Amino acid sequence: MSRSVLVTGGNRGIGLAIARAFADAGDKVAITYRSGEPPAGFLAVKCDITDTEQVEQAYKEIEDAHGPVEVLVANAGITKDQLLMRMSEEDFTSVIDTNLTGTFRVVKRANRGMLRAKKGRVVLISSVVGLYGGPGQANYAASKAALVGFARSLARELGSRNLTFNVVAPGFVDTDMTKVLTDEQRANIVSQVPLGRYAQPEEVAAAVRFLASDDASYITGAVIPVDGGLGMGH
């Protein structure tokens, strides 16, 4: 049965691959984007998740077109990498506001319809960096690590209402963001990955779609790494 699915930051990279995976399965997919031209084939809603009013308006538009959101994938995020001694307070707080507080905003709003329906699937996109750490990424790693505690708290709080909350933690993924790295940088990254390659966005999307499927109905509070073994043990 076709479900109402929302993927935040679904206009490129991992988010777009996730949106396509759900659309290919026959779901009604909405995406949010902050800038640029959105891809065709989805209900695309311009929304900055750091603005509560924009989040509310986006949900109203999606609900009018597709009904209450049944599957939420909180993927939107930013990076502002900088060494700690050079990191400004704005560098830190803006990343937290988007990656963590922005996720809080979209999850809280989705739960309104999910609680009424007494069912729902929420998948948060974290990162291996949130578990493993990364030099110059204290802000990003803190925001992504926090998603684990957020998801597990909600898994305990709302599990009795048939809502699941899980986290997918991708490693290095072959996207436009990583294509700008030099050959030397890419080789250095791959040398740390046991499987010896980058992930494809579709491999992350497959894990997300699984967590939203009937086959995963008894999985909640889990952190699923899709990182080629880079962060194992963390």
TrEMBL record:
CDD domains: BKR_SDR_c (cd05333). Pfam families: adh_short_C2. One of its GO terms (biological process) is fatty acid biosynthetic process. Residues 3-176 form the Ketoreductase domain. It catalyses: a (3R)-hydroxyacyl-[ACP] + NADP(+) = a 3-oxoacyl-[ACP] + NADPH + H(+). InterPro entries: 3oxo_ACP_reduc, KR_dom, NAD(P)-bd_dom_sf, Sc_DH/Rdtase_CS, SDR, SDR_fam. Pathway: Lipid metabolism; fatty acid biosynthesis. Keywords: Fatty acid biosynthesis, Fatty acid metabolism, Lipid biosynthesis, Lipid metabolism, NADP, Oxidoreductase. GO terms for molecular function: 3-oxoacyl-[acyl-carrier-protein] reductase (NADPH) activity; NAD binding. It comes from the Bacteria. Its EC number is 1.1.1.100. Coiled coil: none annotated. NADP(+) binds at residues 9-12, 75, 140-144. The active site is at 140 (proton acceptor). Belongs to the short-chain dehydrogenases/reductases (SDR) family. Homotetramer. Catalyzes the NADPH-dependent reduction of beta-ketoacyl-ACP substrates to beta-hydroxyacyl-ACP products, the first reductive step in the elongation cycle of fatty acid biosynthesis. This is 3-oxoacyl-[acyl-carrier-protein] reductase. It comes from Streptomyces caeruleatus.
